[in-house]
Amino acid sequence: MRFLIQLIGAGLLYALSFAPADAATGGEPVAVTQVDVAPCLAAAAADDMDKAATACAEVIDNEKTTKADLIKALIARGALYARHDQVDHAIADDSRALLLDPGLADVFNARGELWLKKGDKPKAVQDFGAALRIDPNHEKAKANHKAIAREIERIGAQMAVAGKPSFNCGRARWAVERAICGNRELADLDREVFASNARAIREARSAAEAKALQREQDEFIARRNADFGRPGYDLKKAMQERLQRLNGVDGY
């Protein structure tokens, strides 16, 4: 009998040795401590880079962080980086958030704006388009997409006429015209002068003012043709001065 009691006691001790040391009273399992994302969000909202650096890293780098909280922390820190012009860091956080949830229209739009800051228009257009595919009524994405599309169209139009003057080089008669046709910078200047003069005439307050502006342009062309090739004459300078007169000191 004594041997049986000792055997039972040893068995109980063996079983207890495998029980969790910190088990709750009553045999309930200990709850896993959740990662608190609130300090990260609060620090980012307060624009506190120092606190956010620590608080958000604790959330983002913790393997126990839930997917939802990880996304919140990445978006918050990314927005904070963006406000402080740390564009590459902001793009990295937004990109990671989008990998976790590719349905975030706001984040696509935010990253598109960051690509614009870096001067990467194609990537910006892609992100604005992605935001609109998710939410066709996303106002910021619509405005951004429209603006960048116009900019790309304008650049394309400029490239199409780059290095081409306002006149047909095949019909160039004057030496100055042939010089302009042979120099891309002078050709661009000539085209700008022509366009600015046309705008000034179009915006003239009266027919008499428009006529006076055209007469002034004709006199500039005649003087340019006559003076080109003479000692001391600077064609580029003359064209720049004419352009400045047409557009005003501030370019308007």
Automatic annotation (TrEMBL):
Domain of life where this protein originates: Bacteria
TPR repeat extents: 71-104, 105-138
The keyword Thylakoid is assigned to this record: no
Keywords: Repeat, Signal, TPR repeat
InterPro entries hit by this protein: TPR-like_helical_dom_sf (IPR011990), TPR_2 (IPR013105), TPR_rpt (IPR019734), Ycf3 (IPR050498)
Pfam families: TPR_2 (PF07719)
Signal peptide: 1-23
Coiled coil: none
Gene3D superfamilies: Tetratricopeptide repeat domain
Protein name, as recorded: Tetratricopeptide (TPR) repeat protein
Taxonomic lineage from the root: Bacteria, Pseudomonadati, Pseudomonadota, Alphaproteobacteria, Hyphomicrobiales
